[in-house]
Design brief:
Chains A, B: Keywords: ATP-binding, Kinase, Nucleotide-binding, Transferase. 2 copies of one chain form a homodimer. Chain A is α/β, with parallel strands linked by helices. Chain A contains 10 helices and 16 strands.
């Protein structure tokens, strides 16, 4: 079983309008709701790849109930911890004509110390049966700033490989607890290290505590800096589409590859192919399985000198 | 008791953002939720004026549950009829800097014939104790096109004065059933009659079946065309602020004035003062009671020749 943690889950709502015009009134033509948050996306992709995926984190309020009801229809196992506050909503307003998306993200619910304690207990129990764990996304208000550092240490103590995919202060503090893997994008990596030069920045991030750094570089693919070596994997050509969820699919590729014992080139190939197949899928956060399988054969992996 | 009907209730959500930028991502700074729909707004104002107000219509789904929970904290009595579909949400995105609002309105839930029958029975029971009834807003999908005509006839049979405040085809069909009062704004009146000349259009609307037509004309105040005469009431000066809910406050002014036996100049004065006090209130759909009382003394009413 692979465990994913989403402390700030979201009910993702998509509105289709002809075109968003500021300060005008819009009749929404189509409403879609899906359970969201990075770890939930990762778990869905893991399940599609044939892995047993369990999701934990927090859910509460009416939006949390809807999230759990929708999650029950999907493959990942729901081990979310109930909270008094309401799960945040995100609204993606899609212009029907251009396909462009305007995003409105609510802040997360306030999590109490008792709710955090309940989560930590659940997490400890779930780590027992986990082959790997991914800690994904932002921290809701109320959590200790060192929350991810604590969860990384708990995983290391339980000898479960742990991937951290977050940004800003949460990444800075979490990385110091020595996760097996971090997966920043170019912006997150630059924010962490101050460098926009991927190789230099990835090496810097490793010095800050990450065993391996896999940086996602958009059209340039992904760069892995690990104790075993340095690899870069790229799709055959830039893919066009909706990049929402592409990073989460990459995390699922890395984690499933790790659990299946693939080497770094194999893991990167899978991550890049999944990421591209997600960009190509019409619905945000879904991936095109046929495109994924086709892409697997055409991802180019190059090894860099140490 | 005054009854208000809102067939397409809404959970009104307000998001505060620094400024809405199309195709960008926004962190919502503040989220507010309130029970919405025109009849619910009318009932809140009626209650603030000291009247017992009862609301009916439809509510369902998670958004309907939130709406009812919030309504329970307010004065109006909840007689909403449960439905399987989910109450629509409306999202008002307010730019913190300019105060400008971008509106996103979900379509209403599909109402089944059995749910409509259940509503008609509830409505009949509530008419029994009502001094007046207001039928407010749009029709959700699934209702018969003649829904308002049926409710107008039911009120007339029960000898309960009935006000219809809707637009488009729902107004066109409802007015033919001879409601005591319709309250279109200038656009709705023009759409109904084809005329942008208020006096001519109001007379035309009376010929179409309304006993009295009260047209709300924005800064020019309100015009009443009734069998007793023609009056226009205007605020002393144009008021600046958020016009959301101003029309609903006017409906509350007209209905409460009717029930209290005020003459037309008295009813119009109250409607105009409430409307202006709503525009002046900082929160959309609320009204400033002190401004209302002050305004009452300064509304100018003029009588037109027949």
């Amino acid at each position: 079983m692979i465990l994913t943690v989403t402390l700030n889950t979201a009910l993702d709502i998509t509105y289709r309008v002809p075109a968003l015009v500021p300060h005008a009134s819009h009749r929404v033509e189509e409403v879609a709701e899906r359970p969201g948050g990075k770890g939930l996306n990762v778990a869905r992709v893991l399940a599609a790849l044939g892995h047993e995926a369990v999701v934990t984190g927090f859910a509460g309020g009416p939006s949390g109930e809807v999230l759990r009801a929708r999650l029950a229809e999907l493959a990942p196992v729901d081990e979310l911890v109930p909270i008094a506050g309401a799960t945040r909503r995100t609204i993606a307003v899609v212009d029907a004509v251009s396909g462009d998306t305007t995003q409105l993200n609510e802040p997360g619910p306030l999590v109490s110390p008792a709710e955090w304690d309940a989560f930590v207990a659940t997490y400890g129990r779930l780590l027992d049966g986990a082959e790997a764990v991914a800690l994904c996304g932002s921290l809701p208000p109320g959590l200790p700033v060192g929350a991810y550092a604590q969860l990384v240490r708990q995983a290391r103590t339980a000898k479960v490989p742990v991937l951290l995919d977050t940004s800003g202060e949460a990444l800075r503090r979490g990385i110091a607890a020595r996760p097996d893997l971090v997966k920043p994008n170019a912006d997150e990596l630059a924010q962490l290290t101050g460098s926009r030069e991927p190789l230099r920045a990835a090496r810097d991030a490793r010095r800050r505590g990450a065993h391996t750094v896999v940086a996602s570089l958009g059209a340039e693919g992904m760069l892995a800096a690990s104790p075993e070596g340095l690899w870069q994997a790229a799709p055959p050509a830039a893919v066009r589409g909706n990049p929402t969820g592409a990073g989460d699919s990459a995390v699922a590729g890395l984690l499933s590859g790790l659990v299946e014992g693939l080497d770094w080139p194999g893991r990167l190939t899978r991550a890049v192919a999944l990421s591209a197949a997600t960009v190509l899928a019409p619905a945000a956060g879904e991936f095109d399985f046929a495109a994924y399988e086709k892409m697997l054969g055409s991802v180019r992996v190059t090894e860099h000198a140490h």
